[in-house]
Amino acid sequence: MTNEPSAPLPDRPAPKPSTLAVHAGEDRQKPGYSITDPIFCTATYTFADTQAVIDFVQQKLPREEYARYGNPTEKVAQRKLAALEGGEAALLFSSGMAAIACLLQAKLRAGDEIILFDQCYHRTREFCSKHLGKFGVLTHLVPTGDYEQMEAAVTPNTRLLVSESPTNPHLSVVDLQRFVAIGSKHGIETVIDATLATPYNTRPLEVGVDYVVHSCTKYLGGHNDLLSGVVIGSEEKLEPIRKLRGVIGAINGPHTIHLLLRGLKTFELRMQRHNENGLAVARFLDQHPRVEKVYYPGLPSHPYYEVAGRTMRGYGGLLTFQLAGADWRRTAAVVDAVRIPRIGPSLGGVESLIEQPIVMSYHDFTPQEKRALGIADNMIRLSCGIEDKEDLIADLAQALDKEK
Amino acid sequence: MKFRTRAIHVGNEPDPVTGAVVRPIHMAATYVQPGAGDWGRFDYSRSGNPTREAFETTLASLESGCGALGFASGMAAIHCVTMLLEPGDHILAGADIYGGSYRLFNRIVNRAGIEVTLAPSSDLDAFEAAIRPSTRLVWIESPGNPLMSITDIAACAELAHRHGALLGVDSTFATPVLTRPLELGADVVMHSATKYLGGHSDVLGGALTVKDPELNERLHFIQNATGAVMAPFEAFLCSRGMKTLELRVREQSRTAASLAGWLAGDRRVTRVLYPGLPDHPGHKIAARQMDGAFGAMLAFDVAGDFAAAKRVAENTRLFQLAVSLGAVESLIEQPAAMSHASYDRHDRLAHGITDGLIRLSVGLESPEDLLEDLDQALGNTS
After folding, report:
1. CATH of the domain at B352
2. What domains appear along chain A, each with residue ranges and CATH number?
3. Could you confirm whether B102 is annotated as catalytic?
4. N or C: fewer beta carbons within 10 Å in chain A?
5. Is there a single domain that holds both residue B226 and residue B372?
6. What is the pTM of this model?
7. Which chain A residues are within 8 Å of B198, Cβ to Cβ?
8. Does A338 touch chain B (CB under 8 A)?
9. Would you call B44 a catalytic residue per the annotation?
10. pLDDT at A28 > cutoff 90
11. Does B320 touch chain A (CB under 8 A)?
């Protein structure tokens, strides 16, 4: 069963992103003539008679069967995400980790090897090295942005090249063309986790990446009130992943799908605001005497400024900065002094969030590991929400002035 | 804090128990009490509910009020206001108001011995002439529906108070982003939260906001006694919608302004009603009373007859043919055939609701796509 039914939008002229966000993937006439898609809280779907079952199993009848395999509203959300990303099809999962884990498990078998840029999300690294390792898959980590080392790590068993772009928390940006070129040259498929970029800022499929993964929990859902993940790519490449998802069942519930669809309607507006706030706050921090370094791809001082300028439309709401001459306690004091951003993990929602990686995401790493990963004591990660940028800057200014 | 920041944070402090950045949805109908006769913060969800209270707190902040009340629908909210009145009291309402409010005043409220008069609130002399000694409530909308008339809210507040009446404003079209009637002297602001506050066509809700704590208490007493309260899940969706309210309203208003300008220059259109156009009779007041934009609702007359307008309304591809308004999806309707079809044709025409009138609720789609759509739909008229 594919994502084909009646797209309501005329093909020509090609609809713009905000129009896609509101309408793409939705039928013009919905059940009950509702203007919004209904929430199908159903575990199973009934058949009129035995012949209908036979027609369905012989794939003559496109319809739902059991909720682990699909849900009508989920299909709408998948079509909308595919349209925004410029992909053929999309598959939703219960979280971003469920999405990437299912993709990797569907594509890899014992003896296969994968190559990751080393700055990818620490749970993805953990999944590959610890979990896939147990099943005989070998993971190679190479320094982020080092394409020579990536290519040098390729063996006849390499099946996937995996990276995030931008990375978290260093905001390194992958040169997608060079990344894809290695894959094409050696006949290896490529995966980009573009959670931090979103399809508003980067569209990796257009450059030739095979699979785009998002944690929809972040910008796509956008309201810090749901967990979801997605894999986007061609119908053919997604088919084995769809089959495995049907077996393991890491799917979204119907209410989550409704909130995700609802969040996507304002996707473009929110991203414009996240981009604007992220850049304004990064520029403010960059000239602040207490700030030693700011990681934000929109700043000329960032090592990936040139790559980002070529490959991204905006740079998102996430940034990381380091305080001059501060130990972890004095850094924590600034985190504790801000009033608008809440202290917490995650990012990409309307509410700003702040965290100190050393005490939050990386609390159980040894000092050596943290050093190797570039996680410093004086580092703060800030996810700028869509509040007024002047309020955010004033808040950071008072926190930095107070805790000298 | 600025408006946009308050829309996200006021009333939405993280849950004190779990730290959840989005507070839980309290579906509870009742609350366990500390002792017999010893009442906790909440007792029964008709009287108060934490999720509804969060929505009310945010809205009160955005409207510069002292408190707000969430209702099951916009009509439930306005009905609550009319229950402040007693037999013999009189309501003076603007002429360009929502048909549902007109029906409530003339078919339900009048049964309780309350008299109602409609007069054009955009003409202050004519409006004041309709005031009676028994007038207790003056009710206006700005912009009006469907003719987009503009009423001077500050002048109406002065007028109402001089005659000992309350001023109530249905501010559904303007939203607190563009107009804050309490700051202009109004006593009660009403919203159909179904529209811009919810913003996604997926909730029914209403709200009242006031600046006088005593009036808030009287309205809360009526709400609790009559029970048309907003449900917890709807309150959650409205709170979620308000986090993007300013972004949506400003973007949708920008698109509406560009469509109005384009329609005004098109020969297939004979009249455009949009307060942002300099030749709109209420433009000057709107420019003063509305904060930087003129809203996302507009109406226009199609050259030709009823059938020509009907064809336009039925031939759009992005604009969907439906009543309601204020959401991310653009909607189109023909008042003569839809929202105002129950009017006698003579009365309807006397109100300026012509056969060729089309009303648009401009959504979040790209302006270029919406313009293309209108252009092709109008093309079918010739």
Report:
1. 3.90.1150.10
2. 17-265 (3.40.640.10), 267-402 (3.90.1150.10)
3. no
4. C
5. no
6. 0.91
7. none
8. no
9. no
10. no
11. yes
